[in-house]
Structure formats: structure tokens, C-alpha cells
Amino acid sequence: MGMEGIGARVARKEDKRFITGKGRYTDDMVVPGMKHAHFIRSPHAHAKIKSIDTSAAEKMPGVIGILNGAQLAEDAIGNIICGWMIHSKDGTPMNMGAWRPLAQDTVRYVGDAVAIVVADSKTQARDAAEAVVVDYETLPVVTSAIEALKDGAPQLHPEAKNNLIFDWEIGDSAATDAAIASAAHVTEMKVINNRLVPNPMEPRAALGVYDEGEDHYTLWTTSQNPHVARLVLSAFYNVAPENKLRVIAPDVGGGFGSKIYIYPEEIVCLWASKRTGVPVKWNSDRTEAFLTDAHGRDHVSTVKMAFDADNRITGFKVDTIANLGAYMSLFSSSVPTYLYATLLSGQYNIPNIHANVRTVYTNTVPVDAYRGAGRPEATYLVERTMETAARELGVSPAELRKTNFVREFPHQTPVIMCYDAGDFEASLNAAMDASDYAGFAARKEEAKSRGKLRGIGMSCYIEACGIAPSAAVGSLGAGVGLWESAEVRVNAVGTVEVLTGSHSHGQGHETTFAQLVADRFGVGIDTVSIVHGDTDKVQMGMGTYGSRSGAVGMSAVVKALDKVEIKAKKLAAHLLEADESDIVIENGELKVAGTDKSVPWFQMALAAYTAHNMPEGMEPGLKEGAFYDPSNFTFPAGCYICEVEVDPETGKTEIIQFVAADDFGKIINPMIVEGQVHGGVAQGIGQALLEGTHYDAETGQLLTASYMDYTMPRADDLPSFQISTTETACPSNPLGIKGCGEAGAIGSPPALINAITDAIGNNDLTMPATPQRVWAALGSAK
Amino acid sequence: MYATNYHRASSVEDAVKLASSNDEAKYLSGGQTLLPTMKQRLAAPSDLVDLRHVSDMKGISVSGGSIRIGAATTHAEVAKSSEIASACPGLAHLAAHIGDPHVRHMGTIGGSIANNDPAADYPAGLVALNATIVTNKRSIGADDFFTGMFDTALEDGELIVAVEIKAPSKSGYAKFPNPASRYAMTGVFVAKHGDGSVRVAVTGAGSDGVFRQADMEQALASDFSAGAIDGVTVDDSELMSDIHASSAYRANLVKVMAKRAVAAAG
Ligand SMILES: Cc1cc2nc3c(=O)[nH]c(=O)nc-3n(C[C@H](O)[C@H](O)[C@H](O)COP(=O)(O)OP(=O)(O)OC[C@H]3O[C@@H](n4cnc5c(N)ncnc54)[C@H](O)[C@@H]3O)c2cc1C
């Protein structure tokens, strides 16, 4: 691997600028003549807009323009799209209502954008916004998906009767029912997956610049996928054709899914720049982030898991209602369907599975992918059900899992996925050893002597990353392909630039992608630059989400490196008067194997650009591109074990130990992988223990719209994690990578809840397991 | 934030004068409550009168069992004061558990009690300690000072100068923080005074702010031990109920925290 190659624990190149405050984020961008935007938002969860009076505001100091939905319609700016078509089980396409970037006629959630004020300063824009009079006629509100489906509930969109967007199913219903009917034991549960607010450290921002001379637009924005932003801005929102539009996502301070989507504000700032004739910048404040960044999760499910007399699972039936909020966000339809129900087989051999999913409009913030996106919801169902079943069946949770593990690969599940590789028992054993599972009983006794209730819980997760192949997702309704691109440019002095369609917003690509080059050519990572996040620099790419940058983005880099290597060797063979097949690349030199003849890497590169002495027919230069479309999903899997102590007097949970044993396939940089697991587990613990999103059912106001009421995990909420990896290579990509970005958030919530329910002796506990909930569950357990 | 005028007061008289010369003026102490409110445009004082440089309002003095804490003294100063730690350890513990280090180094005792947030910590301490709040006009007993949620006996423009406390023989504070804000979801301060009386004050739980728990005070006066509270039932009808905690859960916390406060008081 070398000091900086694949597998090396290299410190992150990008951290110096981040930790010294030298990162350049969208809000750091300043262009001549730049003005500031403030969005006027609906204070009501559901209302008719009767009129918008801007006359007083327009006369206020510094005001350049105030625009609303009517003007947006004049310019034929399109509706916000959902990019994945789902059909209901009766064959009808999903019932999608219109989402205008600036609401016209009706607002449907608190925070819905109604108008934009552009002024010389932020303060002036805000002052003027206060002088705009919007006359609303309030309408009845519904925030719960279950309530929204009932007859007589407030209706959000005329297209969606009873607020039902689609009623979708997967798997064999009759066979699963039959398995349940003839089972020796059935475990039944009602499981809620709580709604989460993503809270990336950097709030969203946009700077739209229209250049009249060139009739050209530039958008700086907080995006995980600038090319996708450009594509939809061009193809669907009708802002400008792609060749007249540049989208730049500079340093981005975290996304977790919430920055995949192209939101109203980005569209409107870009359009408003042309309408007002000035560059328009907007930066979300934290309250706006709570009110408008796409939320995550929000499922209510009932499950039935059937077992035969040998404790083998014979069937799994799931019914889910998923709250999608007031509008369908970009990938909202795929999250509770193909990213969710296809993982309901977990790590187990389950012959019959059926899931029914209804998605519903409510007067809440739109819901879309959030770290894990569908897979945490699936894992939570499967793993809570397994642990509960073990308790009901009187067998150990590990034994029940071992009885049911998939052990032969490839394994075709009844829900589309074909698992390609894995060793689930290896992860389970590693986690049990690391957690001293065997010694738990003694620790529980000791805790009891201190008046504490100690519990242990596990979670054996599997997830699907990469989100591919393109043809497969296309056949399931995706509006885009899910390949990735790369270009490797070797400069005349031998330094290397890698242009990637992946986008780093915390993942460390500048380091890990450089490690691939170091590994291949024996050059230092400091001589390798990673270029990403700018549609004018980088060829078309699909961006970063779904833990795809390693499995898909790096695979594209590898393909491009292959091509560079071939050409470099050809050229070196020519220079050294040797046979191409005898050339090896080592420590920054191209050598003739078994001889002392060599040419330094930089000299070969220089020769490619001077082109004085090229092999017959070879083009000058050394630059190769590649597109990589994977042949399967990748399947990271692992086992998490959590041990807690509950204070029975207050219901407060303390996490004593958290063990993770993950199989991510090949690892490029163990330190970065550990960081991803730490962050993911912290988010999973946040969901399980702390983060509750509450709406007022009557008014639709978000009650947890600040850190006063929304509990983000803090360092002192978390234990020191014990993490390790086992490795089975992924057979479907050249590096054998599976992906590690989401696993922590996917695998950890059930481990924690299984531990608390073990401690308190009551399986009926809803996330987040706040002290009050645990105390109440203890009371009803007595 | 709306535009505002900033004034730095040099003395108590100067502060009062600066504030009274404008209807919409407000005193600014640590700014930990006032500034966030202004940033959200929920408060719009025309003038801010900064109290942090008034020397009479700063610092801690303890002599012969009398404690005086200037109104502009930060939570961090109270928390790390060795004099407070020995004269009234419960109060040092309380101050050390307000917010986070940033908040403790900016926020002040005067600002906290003038604001009288129903989940703030100091009100429990001052009521249990039977403190006296000294203003530019008068002295007010803690029982009379805290008059309800975000409400105090202060008149318009009246300035808190200091808080005076007679050192108790025992003091202890136990706080169950709100998981999100880390203000008190329930905090109980227990003080045993020189005359043998016991005061138990509860913050974070009452639907009208800080209150005294009379049954516990009685039980502890005859037997100052955590076990003495076992028999007390906490009525939840006057307790707060919100998304974080029901009144029944808070009633439980009042008892559990009271016992822990007694244990801490030793
Ligand atoms: C993140 C965070 C966490 C916090 N956590 C806690 C916590 O756990 N427990 C807790 O108790 N508090 C907590 N607080 C509040 C903190 O303790 C504040 O310091 C306190 O509430 C206000 O004090 P201040 O000095 O900042 O007052 P300011 O914000 O400056 O003023 C508050 C109000 O009091 C008035 N005022 C200030 N001084 C005087 C005076 N001398 N006389 C008359 N009126 C005056 C002001 O005009 C204003 O109306 C927290 C605050 C933050 C931001």
C-alpha cells in the first residue's frame, strides 16, 4: 500500500483549511454588485393567499425588488419535481401535487416560501419583508400521516384524494399471509420511526448571478450534487439551458442528504438575479433550516414476523405509512419504497416478505433522504423485531440471528436485492467478543447493586449502497442514471489532477481519492489535487449520497487510472526501448522489470507533453476520462452492540458501551472510515435517544424549531465508541469497496433501543427514548 | 436585530439615569437572554444600557456569614469562588451547572433573576436561601421578588444592584436538565438555615415559576435526610406539562431531585 496508498491511515489534507477557518463556503462568496435576499414565508401551516401587498415595502430604503409566485409564473419557471416515479399497486402513477418555488394561491406548511425581497443589505431586506402584507385565509391543518388518510381530513392537493400519494407494495402477499397463518410463533409490533431534522453545521445558501452580456447564469450553492442541480434547473425549472448555466458547490459544511435537493430558494435566487439585474445572495438562518430543510424518516409501521418450530423465519409482513410532508421532494418517493422495503430481508434467509407502503401528504416540512434514507427505517423494523422475537421465544438474540443468517452468496431475497458477499457471523462474533457479551450478566448484577438497570442490545444490519446500476434503477422509476465519472489529468510536471463527479462535504475525498493515485503511481498525495463541485470544471457527474463516492465514484477514478497507466507504460516502454509488458510502476518510477533501466514518473509526463519522441500514432498529452456504471448495489453489513444503564428514578439512559463491527469491504483510509462510523453512530444515537420532532396538531407549527427544544446529540451524550472492521470484498467493483457513510446511522438505533428495552423489561418503547418515555415505560412495566 | 443605541454605564446612578431617559431602553448584562431575543426581532429596545462595567455591581464578598454577589457577576465567577464554595456549596454547584462555559462566562446573576425564566436555576437557589435582592431603590425578599413566569417585583427602570444571602448551615442543589436546552426541567434547592428551618424551592416544574414545597420543608425540618421525603406526595396539578415532560413526570422529578439535593447537602 505504501505510506499514502490504499489502506494507509493518512491525515486529511482538507482539514488544515477547515480547522483554521480558511474554508470557502457559499456564504463566503462575494461578487461585485451583490445584493441580499430575504424570503417571506408562510406563518401558517395551511392557508389560502388572498393577496400580497408590497406597495409600502417597495418604498423602503435599499429595496431593489420584491417578487412572488405570479412573476415566477410569468417567466414560466417550472414546478419542483420528484425525480422517481412510483406506481401504486393498482397501476396508477403517484398522485403528485404541484410545488411552486414561490407559493401561489395556497401555502401548505409553516415556512412555505411566498415571496423574495432583494435589497442592498440583509437587514433592509428583512425590514422590507416585515412591511409586506400577505393576507391569508387559514385552512384546517393535518400533521399526522395517519390522520391525513382519514375521511374528512383536510385535503392538501386536489391530485391526492385523502392525501394519499401512492399505495405501493412489494413481495408476495398471499404467500406471506400463509406463512404467518401456519407459523409456530408470530411476533407482532407497532414501530414508529421518528421524524428528524438534519441540521448540517452549514445552513443552506445560494448566490445567483446573471450575466446579461453573456446571457449566462452562475449559481453558487450548498449542494451535494451540483451537476444534478444544473440538470434539473435547466430541464425542469426552465431557468436556463445547461450550456448557459454554471453551478458551483464550493466547500459545503455537511449535508446528510438534505443538500441533495434543489430547493425553492436556489431556484428563486438564480431567477431573481435576472429579474432584478443584480447578483442575489441568500443564506439560511438556523430557524429557516429547521423550517425548510427536508426532514427525514417519519414512518409508522406494523409488522408480523412468523417463525417455525425451529425458530426459522418463515414470513415477514410489513405495513408502513410514510409522511412525505406538504410536497414531494426530489427523491421522496424512492426513500420509503426501493431504498426501504428492498432491505426488509435484513441479514436473514426469509422466504416470504410482503410490504405495503402508503405515502401521505401532511402540512409539514417535506421529507426526503436523510443519512441512510430508507435503510435505517428497514433495519429498525427488522432488528427490533428480531430482538423482541428472541425474548418471546426464550432464545438468545445471537442464537436467533445465527439460526437465520444468510450464509451462501449470492443470495436472492424476495424483495429485489441480491446479496453478493458477506460474513454476518464474523461481524456478530467480533462484536460479541469486543463487548464481552458473555460477561454481561455479571455486569447487570453489579449495576443492580448501585440501583441501576443495565441492558444490552444488538443490531445486525445490512444496507445497500452505491444505488445502482442505472438500468436497474431506471426500470424501477428513477429519473436519472446512477453512474459516476472521473477524469485523471497528469500534468507535464507529473502532478495529477483528478476531476470527479462525486462531491465532498465532509467525507474527505481530497485525501482518499488522492490515495488511489498514490497507490497506483507511487507519487505523494500532496502532488495530487482533487477537483470537484463545479460544473464548468468537471464533466457531468451524479454527486454524493447513498455512500456512493467510494463504491461508484472511486471506481470511475480507477477506470481512468487504468487508461492512464496503459498509456504511461506505452510511452515509458518507448522511451526505455523496452517491451510495454515489462514496464512496472514503483515509487514514482517506470521501470523495466528485472533491470536497472527506469524513467522517473515526471519525466515520462514531460515527454507526453513535449511530444518530441512519441511512439508511432500516440497522441500527445496524458489525460483520460471514464464513466463507471456499477453492476449491482454494494452491501455493507455489520453488528452493533450497545450496553446501557437506566436510572429507574428518572428514566435517564446512560450509554456505557457501544461496539461496532462493520464489513465495509476494502478500506482506503481506516481513519476516515472510523470518522464516518463515529458520525453515523452519533446520528443514530441522536435519533434513538434525543431527537424528537414535534408539530402542534392544531396549528401545524413546528414546536421543535430550535436547539432549545430539538435535542442534537452532544459530545457528553456519547460514549467512546469501540469500532472494528471485518472484510469481505465486494465482488461488483474493482476496488472491492462497499461504502461506509451511512452504516452508523442505519445500524445503531435498534441496538440502543434493544438495550434500553432489555434494561427496563418492556418492549414497547418509542424513539427518541427520552427520560420521560423510559420512565413511563418502566411504570407500565411494573 | 433592529438597530439600537449602546451605552456603557459607569455607576448605578448613571445606569438608572441612562435607562430612564428613554422609554424603550433596557439594561444589558450578560446578554445571554436579551441578545438572542433581539436577534430574532422579538425584542426591540431603542437603547441598551450595559451594566458590566459598573464596579459596584460586580464581584463577590463574604464576611461573617453574609454573602454579597454583585448583580453583574457572572455564573462562572460564582461557580469558581472559593468563598461561595465554603459558605454555600449548593450555590456554587448551581452556578456551575447553568448552560455551557460560554453562557457561564457571559451570563450574570442579575440578568438571570430579572428575567425569571421558569426553568432558570438561580430562582430556586435564591428562594431556598431566603436571599435579599438589593435594587437601586429598596431591598426585596426572594419570596416576594419572583412573582410568576418571567415576572418579578421590579418596577419599570428598577435596577438590581446585588443579591445578599445569609450563609445557610447546609445547602444542596440537584438539577435534571432539559435534554435539549439544558435549562432545568426540574431543579430543587434545599437549604437548612441557622435557625433550624428548612427551605425547599423548585424551579423548572411549576406552571407559575419557582415555588416552595411546604410538605418537604416540614419533613426535613424535623429530620434532614433524604429518607424523610419518602412519605411526601407531590401534587402535579400546578406543574408544567410540555413536549419534554408531563406534569406527572415532573412531580416524580421534584421528589427525586429533592432527595438528591438533600443528599448533596450532606
Ligand atoms: C445556550 C444557553 C443556555 C442557558 N442555560 C441556562 C441554564 O441552564 N440555566 C439558567 O438558569 N439559565 C440558562 N441560560 C440563561 C443564562 O443564565 C442567562 O445568563 C440569564 O438568563 C440572563 O442573564 P444575562 O446576564 O445574560 O442577562 P441579559 O440577557 O443581559 O438580560 C436579561 C434581562 O434582564 C434584564 N436585566 C439584566 N440585568 C439587570 C439588572 N441588574 N437589573 C434589572 N434588570 C436587568 C435585561 O434588561 C433583560 O431584560 C442559558 C442561556 C443560553 C444562551
Automatic annotation (TrEMBL), chain A:
Residue intervals of the Aldehyde oxidase/xanthine dehydrogenase a/b hammerhead domain: 20-140
Keyword Iron: no
Superkingdom: Bacteria
UniProt cross-references to InterPro entries, sorted A to Z: Ald_Oxase/Xan_DH_a/b, Ald_Oxase/Xan_DH_a/b_sf, Ald_Oxase/xanthine_DH-like, AldOxase/xan_DH_MoCoBD1, AldOxase/xan_DH_MoCoBD2, AldOxase/xan_DH_Mopterin-bd_sf
Keywords: Molybdenum, Oxidoreductase
Stored Gene3D superfamilies: Aldehyde oxidase/xanthine dehydrogenase, a/b hammerhead, Aldehyde oxidase/xanthine dehydrogenase, molybdopterin binding domain
Pfam family, one: MoCoBD_1
SMART domains in UniProt: Ald_Xan_dh_C
This protein's record includes keyword S-adenosyl-L-methionine: no
Matches recorded under PANTHER family: ALDEHYDE OXIDASE 1-RELATED, XANTHINE DEHYDROGENASE
Protein name: Molybdopterin-dependent oxidoreductase
Organism annotation: Hoeflea alexandrii
Native organism taxonomy: Bacteria, Pseudomonadati, Pseudomonadota, Alphaproteobacteria, Hyphomicrobiales
UniProtKB/TrEMBL annotation, chain B:
Keyword Phosphoprotein: no
Domain of life: Bacteria
Keywords for this protein: FAD, Flavoprotein, Oxidoreductase
InterPro entries, sorted: CO_DH_flav_C (IPR005107), CO_DH_flav_C_dom_sf (IPR036683), Diverse_Substr_Oxidored (IPR051312), FAD-bd_PCMH (IPR016166), FAD-bd_PCMH-like_sf (IPR036318), FAD-bd_PCMH_sub1 (IPR016167), FAD-bd_PCMH_sub2 (IPR016169), Mopterin_DH_FAD-bd (IPR002346)
First and last residue of the signal peptide: none
FAD-binding PCMH-type domain mapped to chain residues: 1-170
Any one Pfam family match given in the protein's UniProt record, by short name: FAD_binding_5
Record-linked PROSITE patterns: FAD_PCMH
Organism: Hoeflea alexandrii
UniProt cross-references to SMART domains, sorted A to Z: CO_deh_flav_C
Keyword Signal: no
Protein's name in the database: Carbon monoxide dehydrogenase
